[in-house]
Amino acid sequence: MIVVFGAGAIGCFVGGMLAASGTPVTLIGRAKAMAPLEGNFTVCALGGQPMAVPAMHVTRATEPGALAQASTVLVCVKSGDTKDAARAITACAPQNARVISLQNGVTNATTLAGALGAERVTAGMFGFNVIQSPAGSFSQVTEGEVVLGETGADLVKTFQPTEIHAATNPNIEGIQWTKLLMNLNNALNLLSGIGLKTQLQDRQWRRVLSVAMSEGIAVARADGVRLERVGKVHPKLLPSLLRLPDILFSRVANAMLRIDPAARSSMVADYHAGRPSEIAWLNGFIVDRAAEHGLHAPVNTKICQLVNSAFAAEDRVDLNLSAGQLLQ
């Protein structure tokens, strides 16, 4: 039995795709998140048609006791909940259950391994955005794939009948760091108040992302990380690509703009749902590692300040900052 621990947009999409292909799945999530799943729900790959998820292949649960039947646990909780997830897996899951981290950031698999044992945990990278409709439809809205460490080869085979492209990579650390660099845009999308596609079509916002990524690449280099390509462009080339004029960028980076116009970052969803932010595991992680190496990361520092201020506000109103405010 595959158990998805953290049935948010990503967890429900992954679990739904597996269930639609005939794999029995248990989804564990908070009661509020599980409410739209009481009836049938659908999943839809980018550019594809919605697929109904057969109720017979899905068990819904709100308590970690449902981990008792797990042979594999897909951890999809927010980074701030990873330690709690590890405690729940320790208490409720079989000791031989494998654990796969499909989370943002680069430290969650290490946290899980510290609590559960490195032999049980496989690091992974979930490479695309998913949005959830109020009616319980989960749709892929950007290009991407799932990449796992080498110990995840059997799960890759499980994904083969689905519309999720999955692969393994021996340098999963480099894959995760590259995704981290891309996820530095999560906060910018929140601050901009516009859709992901519109934001990436704006050269000024791309300039901000370019600087934030350059700061991250410097930290990766200082940490001795060998970055891996995720998508069609190597991460070291991304800052220069992002600085191109709009016309050139739209031609050269056409795949990056293959985004559903409704797509927003997961941080936007967290903000409006009243959940905590993952900024500490994204831009904040770059700021902290830069300080460890005696480097400076002024743009990521400012992004963190603005995001933390927004999440701390009593009223989480729509944000509409200009790119210039982050480069001042």
Structure description:
- Helices cover 42% and strands 13% of the residues.
- It contains 15 helices and 12 strands.
- The protein has helices spanning 9-20, 31-34, 82-92, 108-116, 153-159, 172-183, 185-192, 196-200, 203-222, 238-242, 246-252, 266-273, 283-292, 298-312, 324-327, and strands at residues 2-5, 25-28, 42-44, 51-52, 58-61, 72-75, 98-101, 121-126, 130-132, 137-140, 146-148, 166-168.
- It has an 8-stranded mixed sheet, sandwiched between helices. Strands 4-3-10-9 form a 4-stranded mixed sheet, covered by helices on one side.
- Helix 3 packs parallel to helix 4, helix 7 packs across helix 14 and helix 13 packs across helix 14.
- The mean pLDDT is 94.
- This is 2-dehydropantoate 2-reductase.
- The CATH topology of the largest domain is given as Rossmann fold
**End-to-end C-alpha gap:** 52 Å
Proportion of helical residues: 40-55%
The spatial strand order of the largest sheet comes to 5-2-1-6-7-8-11-12
The total beta strand count reads 12
Order of helices and strands: EHEHEEEEHEHEEEEHEHHHHHHHHHH
Calculate the mean pLDDT score and round it: 94
Work out the count of structural domains.
2
- What's the architecture of the largest domain in CATH terms? 3-Layer(aba) Sandwich
Secondary-structure class: alpha/beta
Summarize the structure.
The chain has helices spanning 9-20, 31-34, 82-92, 108-116, 153-159, 172-183, 185-192, 196-200, 203-222, 238-242, 246-252, 266-273, 283-292, 298-312, 324-327, and strands spanning 2-5, 25-28, 42-44, 51-52, 58-61, 72-75, 98-101, 121-126, 130-132, 137-140, 146-148, 166-168.
